Amino acid sequence: MSSQAVTPSLTLSRTGDKMPIVGFGCWKVSKDVTEHTVECAIREGYRLFDSACDYGNEVEVGRGIANAIKAGVVKREELFVTTKLWNTYHKKEHVRAAFDRQLKDLGLDYFDLYLVHFPVPLQYVPMETKYPPEWFPPGESKTKLEKAPLHELWPEMEKLVHEGLVKNIGISNFNVQL
Question: Signal peptide: which range, if any (predicted)?
């Protein structure tokens, strides 16, 4: 993909935002190369970046984006940045703190798309204890589920939209039975 490439996009019905149909996923990109890799991807024409707290590299993703913007390669509004709410933050009282941390880590003013990462609410792990929290609580060898109904989580996501901090919200890794 060259920097001159025009990536086809989908128009999101609620906002009219254009979401590129090809994006750069940041899962399993090691922290030591993420910043440079993201900046290079932008120079090569990528405009959609998929991130998540659980990937453990959001600070570096944000630095790569910032470098490209500072170098004049792209403007923020030309990018489509997606990230996801991790499973340990599904309780309504944890959504905003998790979101604020991700916004800070990525160094952005808003997200284009914020998703519920998985339909599996896990036991809350305070950020001071372990961040990103991953699938298992510190010192545990198995996941611990939490009761956090989606219908209580969703209004907290909507608040982020109403505050102008997120343009679009959605779900990830859900199936039709949910």
Answer: none
Q: At what angle do helices 150-162 and 92-106 cross, to 10 degrees?
A: 40
Q: Which parts of the chain sit beneath pLDDT 50?
A: 1-3
Output the six-digit token pair for 51.
């991130």
Answer yes or no: 114 catalytic: no
For the chain, list the domains and their CATH numbers: 9-171 (3.20.20.100)
C-alpha separations of 29 from 59, 88, 124 in Å: 12, 22, 26
Digit-coded pLDDT (tens) for 39-48: 999 999 999 9
Residues in the chain: 178
Reduce the DSSP state of residue 119 to 3 states and report it: coil
pLDDT at residue number 113: 99
Residue 32: per-residue pLDDT: 98
Interatomic CA distance for residues 35 and 47, integer angstroms: 15
